[in-house]
Amino acid sequence: MTSPPRAPAVQDPPAKFVYDFTEGHRGLSGLLGGKGANLAEMTRLGLPVPPGFTITTAACREYLRTGTPPPALRDEVSAHLDALERRTGRRLGRGADPLLVSVRSGAERSMPGMMDTVLNIGLSDTSVRSLAAQTGDERFAWDSYRRLVQMFGETVLGIEGDAFADRLADAVAQAGAADETGLAAGQLERLTRMFQDLVCERTGRPFPQDPREQLDLAVRAVFDSWNGPRARLYRRQERIPHHLGTAVSVCAMVFGNLGQDSGTGVAFTRDPATGQQGVYGDYLRNAQGEDVVAGIRNTVPLAALERLDPASYAELLRLMEVLENHYLDLCDIEFTIERGRLWMLQTRVGKRTAAAAFRIAVQLVDQGLIDEAEALRRVSGEQLAHLMFPRFDSGAAPAPLARGVAASPGAAVGVAVFDPARAVARAARGERVILVRRETTPDDLDGMIAAAGILTARGGKTSHAAVVARGMGRTCVCGAEELRVDHAARTATTADGTVVREGDVLSVDGTTGRVYRGEVPVVPSAVVEYFEGTAPPDADDLVAAVHRVMGWADAARRLGVRANADTAADAARARRFGARGIGLCRTEHMFLGERRALVERLILAEDDQGAQRALAALLPLQRADFRELFSAMDGLPVTVRLLDPPLHEFLPDLTDLSVRVALEHRDEDVRLLAAVRRLHEQNPMLGLRGVRLGLVVPGLFAMQVRAVAEAAAECRAAGGDPRPEIMIPLVGTVQELEIVREEAEEVIAAAAEAHGTRLDIPLGTMIELPRAALTAGQIAEHADFFSFGTNDLTQTVWGFSRDDVEASFFAAYLEKGIFGVSPFETIDTDGVGSLVRAAALAGRAARPGLKLGVCGEHGGDPDSVRFFHEVGLDYVSCSPFRIPVARLEAGRAATAAP
Amino acid sequence: MTSPPRAPAVQDPPAKFVYDFTEGHRGLSGLLGGKGANLAEMTRLGLPVPPGFTITTAACREYLRTGTPPPALRDEVSAHLDALERRTGRRLGRGADPLLVSVRSGAERSMPGMMDTVLNIGLSDTSVRSLAAQTGDERFAWDSYRRLVQMFGETVLGIEGDAFADRLADAVAQAGAADETGLAAGQLERLTRMFQDLVCERTGRPFPQDPREQLDLAVRAVFDSWNGPRARLYRRQERIPHHLGTAVSVCAMVFGNLGQDSGTGVAFTRDPATGQQGVYGDYLRNAQGEDVVAGIRNTVPLAALERLDPASYAELLRLMEVLENHYLDLCDIEFTIERGRLWMLQTRVGKRTAAAAFRIAVQLVDQGLIDEAEALRRVSGEQLAHLMFPRFDSGAAPAPLARGVAASPGAAVGVAVFDPARAVARAARGERVILVRRETTPDDLDGMIAAAGILTARGGKTSHAAVVARGMGRTCVCGAEELRVDHAARTATTADGTVVREGDVLSVDGTTGRVYRGEVPVVPSAVVEYFEGTAPPDADDLVAAVHRVMGWADAARRLGVRANADTAADAARARRFGARGIGLCRTEHMFLGERRALVERLILAEDDQGAQRALAALLPLQRADFRELFSAMDGLPVTVRLLDPPLHEFLPDLTDLSVRVALEHRDEDVRLLAAVRRLHEQNPMLGLRGVRLGLVVPGLFAMQVRAVAEAAAECRAAGGDPRPEIMIPLVGTVQELEIVREEAEEVIAAAAEAHGTRLDIPLGTMIELPRAALTAGQIAEHADFFSFGTNDLTQTVWGFSRDDVEASFFAAYLEKGIFGVSPFETIDTDGVGSLVRAAALAGRAARPGLKLGVCGEHGGDPDSVRFFHEVGLDYVSCSPFRIPVARLEAGRAATAAP
After folding, report:
1. Residue B343 φ/ψ, nearest 5 degrees
2. The pTM is what?
3. What's the pLDDT score for residue B1?
């Protein structure tokens, strides 16, 4: 047999490393970066974008791999540069009207720590004079050259910025000027020479005069900055792969600083704060973009441009409409007017507040621009959660005392306290406390727990204060850098000298990062009032928008949403918030308060009879609890988890009691101490709890199962429709479940018979140990449902005790980028998630139709909800307050772009 | 296109439910049970087996599935019964010479709690008379019938045994006889009638007179007994699937109780105690098999048969040789001589002591009967471990005071103490203590830790005492039921009234289960002396056998064996025992003793400088430790694990210190208490330890890495060949490893440069968290090796803190069959093992040739070693004492039948 002739080897055409702005489009952001792709898109739309081209991320990747730019890149850049020169009729850094270009980095996602921009590439000792002659503005030309040498020196050649800044300050001082704008052309020329000397001194080479060399070095510097330490850290934190690389856009310069008919500005197609359509933005006359960002000079509202340059203003409004109708969203635009001519330098879909997001999404639907599924993609559960916090009455708020990072949302009012011990003491006296610290450490934990709000002067979203506050649900503003905190003096001083002393009242807004002096009135969230049913769906336009979006989400979602609720009151609230059942009722909460004495009797019982008497006394109390709960959730499932925590949680603390016994020697304490010692565990999280307790303490689970069954029978007898489900916690192996299940079935059958009714009570298990997930197929054969306990699963998969590790090292881990986000906030899909996925598959394979839910706190976390949808769970269960968030995210997940 | 004509559907012949003894063979034990398969094998070999047939496990399974015997079974049994009657020339329970049969259960593995045997099926009010006439022995006939009614009543009809026993005792008393052998024929007849009345009274039906009905009921009872509670529990404990079912063998009766020319006995082809070839066993004249087992009458040594019945004796010896040459192993035989004719009733490969196992294996190789691979299969690591414990000098031992379950091996001598608190107190005074308890509970833990040996009167291998003692490595005998323990009186009394009082010396042999009064001299293990090199390989025949078997194992094994060793002394010992390197050096042990003060300084340091000074002081000490270790293992790898435990382990206990502060108010204690509180963790196992510590405490890991690198450089300078490997503990995510690795590489490079040498030190990680296993592919990209820390992995996969749970509920779990064996003893292949397997695969896929080891205690456990071999690890690492066991099991694993 002969094989067919092989096709001759064909060489792929070499990859194209450079795209003209006329070639790309916004779909190519992976290749051209966000900036490059949007420049290409605007060019494609016929908007006035200065001509230019983008060097692809592929070129960067090749550079990072080999250490040198790909050989083909030089020629491609030359070809595109020639084309650019032909189109503009100018030559880069040469001739009477020299072409200057900007070089800007642009990864798919913008990234702090990367080199951003070098402007005015092309200026040299020669071309600076041509520029002066051509523009007729010698000062402008030298200032541009001065800026190039400075920017190039800093970002491309790596000379520390202070060296330039010091020389600039000296020059300003010598000239007797107020600031650099007071320097004349000659002074700027001298300064530029000094900068060039500095470059030569530091690099051993003169400032490059060849414009192409400037360009190539700048491109290479952008590539290198991809691997700068801050960029690497940011990528670790954000889980952006290191291999992606950045693109580089090269764009012909236009100048907003060529006189009063020039200027630069930013514009938004809608108000990013409220979502209202209109003209929003700022404009700065006779200035370059960096001046707007630097905030050196005062901008005017964009509307003022109508008076200053009506033609450009009208053109800008027209282009804004083009962009919004094209992007179908709020656009954020940078523009420059050069001597009366409008140029678009950048656009992107704009950031917005939570309220604006909901309003804009609904408006766009009403305008027929997007459909409801797209509207769901335009809002997020996190935004909805922000709208649900009480907030300060903005009308009544004074000017903020300070601003910091909005680290953990909420509105907290209290007296400033500068020391954790005093925070505990004052809180114990009933005061509401704001703990103010330079930064927090694990030693501050008690104080943080006692405080209503936390304010720090240092640290960002991943600082200890931020991480711990979020974990505990405390309001927190951190990194309010204008505050000088003096722990010894117990004061915080603002930049303008205002002093906050211990005991002064502060209002801390963890949603906006603002801090106010005095008590700012708190207004409840209208959105929550709407969910509670105390405000109508048309209470205001925000509520109306939320109402409609929630309707779309509920219609779209496939995931059910249940509540974690232990009391009838919580259950009723959850139901108002849209829960369709209870996914987790923790029975341990029913053993607290006065009942603790009964549990103590159970634990201290000397024989089995004593223990059974204690259980018998608990039975009617539990039964009554369940009856109330089933009534509150009548007609909907209520998943009751049998007792989970170790018994010693119901007894006094070992250390406290030991000290008391040592000091007071009371007989009853001595006896109690013996029991506490006996039950003491090194690692109670990994000890005698959950199903283990049920297997070791005779009658405990049977009592609970009986209480559930009898409560159900009684509710039914009273005309109700109780739907209990019983969940067995901490199962690690199917044998545990088999034994408990057998006993539970007997107890239920006996209760049903005694009440003359039929009780179909599903018996399921938590999957909260790695072993349960790994053997889910075996366990499913004896379980009517699985509920993933992702809190405990996270603890065991990572080997973390949440109580211990959040305070001790999570902040360090987030700062080093070891975590992108705490795995207790958002499910760790690689680790914990992979077990959930595998267990769901194995469980359903062993028992088709097995009901799958999740009842860890992740059930109310937006990103996690999307994961649970994707994995195919039937429902999530979360705290009542989080239910709307879960509903929304479940709807979004169901409409996610594939 | 036409498809080829299909073959006409052929119906499978119906499954065959009954095999004649002439049809099966020993390979069919899954179908015929162990007993049935061996009866068939002996029949096939032409040995004199009474004819019979076996009902298969398939029939049982069908019965268990449907609740009734398969319809075809009745006819098949009839056909085989007909054949049996034809062959014997007798009819079941009919005629002048009625055929009687035995019905015996026989699963693939023998199983306590299942119905065992019913003899004499076929006897009825009619046939008993024929039997009397035929044998000429009326007493024999009625005694046989009495036994049938009793056995049938108890095991088939479920009447409690006491009801029969009471009537029997009454009859003996009325007859004025010493025991039942004193009853005459008439008395036995009356007793039989009374038994029949009892049956009728209890079951409402007369004792069945139809022999076939007797047979069918007995078969059904055997089937039912498969699901008896004890059998189910045993299967749960032993992980035998519930669906297998049992076979039933039906065999023509032969009688050893037909006079002085009859008898019954057991024989072994070799001495099961020593392995010596010869004639071993017991014989009982004029008796049935059950009499031998019951021990009612005294047996004679088998050799006596030569005098009593030389022909049968010679025949027996011949058959024993046939069997041994056929089974190629020690055979354990049951036989009966009926009026001078020898019948073989059962054979199986016999149990033997550890010493016998080694001797027999070597002998069989020398006889050319088996090869070396087969010899390895004939011994086990557990047997070798038993040979390595010191033992009591059997020559010097008195008669045992009591016997119990050999629960945890070893030979312990000490004073009897009956209370855990006093055990602690006496041990603190330096006494060696044997804790004697009725049974132990978690409250006894302190006393168990303090004791050299533990002795209980109740409980088996899975009792609390046994489980905890094995976990702690304490010698333990439990369930010594002849002892009455009186805790209040502090005495233990034997059946013969001997009283042991507190303070009396006891010697407890945990390897044999024997307990002696007084101090029995302990002799060291000759096998250990051989491994230590202090005894030659030919010290005695046992040592010689072990020496040869170890040679075969080493030649066969693919797994490397390393030691867990922290000191040069341990390393040297491990090397003598055959370790080829250290797989785990725990550096925390180097921080104890006087150095604890330095660690305390590190922890209490008020600033970074203080901490760095403390680290600097530790550096030379660590370096010296490593130098010694590398020298002891010169030329072999030494894996150093960086500091793992939480820092507070180096500080005083929180509760103790709190009490001291409350009572004494010393300033230095107050300061220390603040640090202890700060570092206190709810669940230290899941807290700030391992790599987390390395990332949070600046300079800690760097100091350790530097000590390793400098020690290696110094050893090399001194002409040595140090081969350190550095292992990073508790990694959960690759980011942790990346950061630590980067720092370590810098430190190593700096040390190498400073010493003018090259240092290639592999950097690897423990895989001891589920998340590390689940993301092993990512981690492997930054790890030179993996070492599975299966102790911690077991703790997190199951959510067990070993310190807490072994005492609190493992005994209950083993007793309920939730565990077959503690997952800390033998790796849990379904859970922990599945992660090890997946991580090994993912790691090697990401980094081909990645070196994989295990350093948990499972590395020295026989079953676990086989698993690690199967998963493809490169080495196991275990405590020095376990190294020979690991070597042997690694060799066995490599030669395991596929």
Report:
1. -125, 140
2. 0.86
3. 40
